[in-house]
Every structure is written in structure tokens, then in C-alpha cells.
Amino acid sequence: MVSWNIALGLVVIALVLPFVFLRSQLSSLLLRYRAAQSEMEHLRCMLRELESHVQNDKSLFLEALGVPFLLVKPSGRLVMANRCAGELLGMDESRNANLLRVLPEGDLRSAISSAVQSREPGERALSLQWRGEQRHFRVRSTPLRNTEGHVGIVFHDVTEEYRTQIIRRDFVANASHELRTPLTILRGYLETLLDDPASAQDEALRTRSLGIMKKHVDRITRLVEDMLTVSRLEGAGQGYLKMELFDFADAVSDVQLRLESMVRQQGAHLSVQIHPSPFMIYGDKFYWAQILFNLLENALKNNPAPGLHLSLTAALATDGSAVMTVQDDGVGIAPEAMPYIFNRFFRADATGRIKGTGLGLSIVKNAVEVHGGTISAESEEGRCTTFRIVLPAKDSRKRQG
Q1: Distance from C-alpha of 355 to C-alpha of 95, rounded to nearest angstrom
Q2: Which of 32, 81, 117, 391 has the fewest Cβ atoms within 10 angstroms?
Q3: CA 86 to chain centre
Q4: Which of 10-24, 148-162, 169-183, 291-305 is most confident?
Q5: Contacts with 301 (C-beta within 8 Å, 6 or more apart), sequence order
Q6: What's the CA gap between 383 and 241, in Å, rounded?
Q7: How confident is the model at residue 209 (pLDDT cuts 50, 70, 90)?
Q8: What are the backbone angles phi and psi of residue 63, rounded to the nearest 5°?
């Protein structure tokens, strides 16, 4: 009986032990599987975070470009774009749309089509309405050396460069025109005096001819001086200015002396109000005198009829900025001419009756801006014209002490 029990025990042990061992192994495998699952999930999270960081870094890089950028497939399907590009395209930049299908017919679609069809780097000019105005772009496309054949397209905004070229071209053309007239007159009188001895002997004719010639030499001199002033202000900026703290009233007095004869001859009246006194300004006294002279002379030239009232005021605003105004009660400026009055060589008087270089108000604007200020103009045709200059406190007063 004992041996039977022992045998039975051995049988039970033989049957149970593999089960226990198998269960132990299964538990161990289950723990390893769960640990592997946890590790896999951790790796997936890390991968998602890494992809998110890469995507964010890529987006930040594209936004940091500051110019519209597109990455497109040869088919025209958008792969990647920054916010500037989305604004330029007029669509959500995150959409993987086919630009050659969704964009309307026009120069933009044509530029993208040319870029993706060419397998060589290219460049072309493009003009588009963007951000409320006509902008000019230089579009550069670069095929990438990847298996998908992607093409990178960058839109460089060259509007200011384009406008500068136009301004320079117009400046040369206008300056040439302004110089040609007095030079032609000078040459005509010189030829008369040189080729006709009888005319040269006529004292009255000679005196009259020399007077006219001097007038036109003065006109050329003024034009050249004004062009040099514009060039200096635009090219050198504040580096050319002799900055100092001075009493604004001193510049006003200099201008009053220079215009005294003209004011008297035209029967005009000029009033000056400056408060407080002294009214200290940090800037180039010479150019501030030029600003005031050009504004007042412009008013006198455009209103030659007797009785013109001119006022020049200077005061401090509550925020500490300096505010200067020049106002007249003359004929005013036509509304259609107002946007252009600070353009070089622009004349509101189309009749040619008003003489001048056409650079006065351009010099005023440049001189004010190079001092850190702003200038604006308001006019009511037939009643008055007001020019208002504002010089911020930090620029107007690098104060005593």
C-alpha cells in the first residue's frame, strides 16, 4: 500500500511539475511580452515626438525664410509651403492640392507650371497683386536631386528694387529735361551775341541777354544744388548730418531773413509762434532751415497774389514730441494731386506758370525722415494748405542734461 502511494505521488509529481514549469515559463514570456509592448509604445511616443519636433523645426525654418516658398511634385501637387506662400497663393498652405488645377489661369500658375516642367534651375520675373498693392517678384526654381523629383520654388519680393530703378530712370529723365531748357536758352543767347557783332554792340540788348542768361544759370545752379541735396539725404542718411542741439527759433530767423524780400514784394504776411522758448531741437540746423525755407517758398510761389497769410508754429505735444506746422490761406492743392506732392519733380501746377526745380517738397520729406520724423499735408482747394511735421521725443530732444 505504501509503495502504491509512493508510486501515485511520483506520478502526480511527474504530471504537475511540467505544468508548473510551463506555467512559469508562460508567465515569464508574458512579462517579457508586456515589457516589449511597453518599450514599443515608448519608442512610438519618442518617434511621434521626434516627428513633431522635425515638423515644427521644418515649419519654423520655412517661416524664418520670410519669403514665399513652395515644394511641389513634377505633377504640380503641393508637398510643402510656408504661410507666406499660402497667402500668395490665396489658399491653405497645408493642403496637398495640385496647384496646376486649383489655381486660376494667370501669371502665377504659368510661373509654377514652367518651374515644374523644367529640369534645370530657372528664374523669371512676376508681377502680382499682393497685400493690397502691385508687387514684383523674382521667381527662382530649383529641381531637387531626390527620387520624387521635387522642385523648390522661392518668390523673392523685389518691389523696392524695381521702384528704385523706376525712380532713378525718371530722375535722370526729368533732370535732363529740366537742364535742357535753360541750357538751350543760354546757347541761343550766346550764339546771338557771338555770331551777330551788331547785337553784341547793342548795350540794351546785351544787358537784357546777360540778365536772362544769369537767370537761367541760377536756375541750373539751384537744380544741381537740389539734386545734390536729395542724393546726400537719400544716400548718406544721418551719417551726413551735423547733429547738434540748437534753438529752432534760430533756424526760423534765418529763413525769415532769406524770404523777407519775397514776402514784401508779394504783399504777404508771415506770423511765427514758437512755444516754449527756447525750443530746443536735436538735428542738423542747416537742413531744418532748408525744410522751412522750401515749405514757405513753395507757399509763396504757388500763391503770388497779394494778401497771402502764412503761419509757422512749433509746439510740444503731450507725449513730448515736437510738432511744427506751416499753413497758408492760398489756392490750395487739388485732391487728385495730393498723393504725389512729395514726389521728385512733381508740380501740382500743370500750366508751368510756377517756376522751380520740382524738388523742394521731396527734399523736405527726405530731410524730415532722415531726422526720424514724419510729414503730412492737408489741403482744401481754394481755402488753405497745411504741412505738419512731427518729430518724436526721442529724436527731437536728446536733451540738455
Answers
A1: 60
A2: 32
A3: 22
A4: 291-305
A5: 354, 355, 356
A6: 36
A7: confident
A8: -70, -35
Those residues with Cβ within 8 angstroms of residue 92's Cβ, 6 or more apart along the chain or in another chain: 86
Q: Cell triple for residue 99? A: 496647384
- How many of the other CB atoms lie within 10 Å of CB of 198? 7
Nearest 5 degrees, angle CA 367-CA 371-CA 377? 55
CA pair distance 302, 65, nearest whole angstrom: 49
Does residue 304 have a cis peptide bond before it, meaning omega lies within 30 degrees of 0?
Answer: no
Residue 246 and residue 285 in contact, taking contact as beta carbons nearer than 8 Å:
yes
CA dihedral (362, 367, 368, 373) in degrees, to 10, reads 130
Residues in the chain: 401
User: Distances in Å between the alpha carbon of 143 and those of 74, 147, 344?
Assistant: 9, 11, 44
Q: How many CB atoms lie within 10 A of CB 361?
A: 23
pLDDT tens readout for residues 275-326: 998 999 998 898 899 899 999 998 998 888 898 999 999 999 988 899 999 9
Q: Which three cell numbers stand for residue 324?
A: 511744427
Cα–Cα distance measured from residue 373 to residue 366, given in angstroms and rounded to the nearest whole number: 10
Predicted TM-score (pTM) of the model is: 0.55
Q: Nine-digit cell at 141? A: 526654381
Torsion sign across C-alpha atoms 248, 249, 250, 255: positive
The domains located in the chain, with CATH, are 67-157 (3.30.450.20), 161-240 (1.10.287.130), 241-401 (3.30.565.10)
Rounded Cα gap, residues 260 and 263, in angstroms: 5
Query: Average pLDDT of 103-122?
Result: 83
